[in-house]
Amino acid sequence: MLELRLMRQFVVVAEELNFRRAAERLHMTQPPLSVAMRNLEDAVGVSLLDRSKHHVRLTPAGAVFYQEAKRILQYTAQARERARLTGMGHEGSLRLSFVPSAALDVLPAVFKQFQQAYPGVRLHLTAETTTRQLQDLRNGRTDLALVVGPVHDAGGLLIEALKPQTFVVAMPADHALACNARSVRVRDLANEPFVSFPNVEGAGFTAALLMVCRQAGFTPHIVQEASQMQAILTLVAGGLGIALVPAAMRRLHMDDVVLLDIEEPDIVHTYDLVLARAEANDNPVIHAFLATVRECLESTE
């Protein structure tokens, strides 16, 4: 087994072709360096250096060994650096899943800052419902999930809450409550048909919707369900009902739909976005991404 230390010393000797200068570069004295080169030649089994009183030169075997030793040392340095970067979360990959509405509000700034700070990391992104995201976390198919909280069955998961997200009311543009209005009272929606997420796909979102309505004194009459926000808005545009949707949906424009603020200050009309990850997942990139999310959220407060 050849020691990397001997290879490094040999490369310096081969570059200097002078034991005194090589020893100075290596911060050692000449006799131990000479002994080290003899030991290296014994380990290789051939003469690598042609020595005389007046010169040192590489033998043909030494010239080949010099090129290969340099390559090995370069590979070793690269391996060390890549391991260091990976351990710090600066290199590798991250499998991230998210609820689609978060892609309109929270994630764009995070992605931009993360890619600038960690150009060596590759992101693998999927948009899924909360239920499927949590399944993928537990099955090891994703590293990190941006989901709608609360997460009631959080066994084996680590949960970090982000800033609350605001609901707005989506209704057909020709609805009586929408005409020339910028806001609406939840209490005035008690007799309206609602479009919502299936509870099995997004329990946290459904629970938040119910809480908003119950604060206003009624339980919503849900007549249609859809698993994607764009589909919900399409149903609203078709006049099938109204919906509570994330304020981030304002970034999308859909004909025949208006988004109105909720005007009652006594009604909490927010829901939680949380980042979830499996406790057993030791991917260092997770912590780098979480740090970036925190920085972005702090800068917007």
Automatic annotation (TrEMBL):
Coiled coil: none annotated. Pfam families: HTH_1, LysR_substrate. Residues 2-59 form the HTH lysR-type domain. GO terms for cellular component: protein-DNA complex. Keywords: DNA-binding, Transcription, Transcription regulation. Belongs to the LysR transcriptional regulatory family. This is LysR family transcriptional regulator. It comes from Diaphorobacter ruginosibacter.
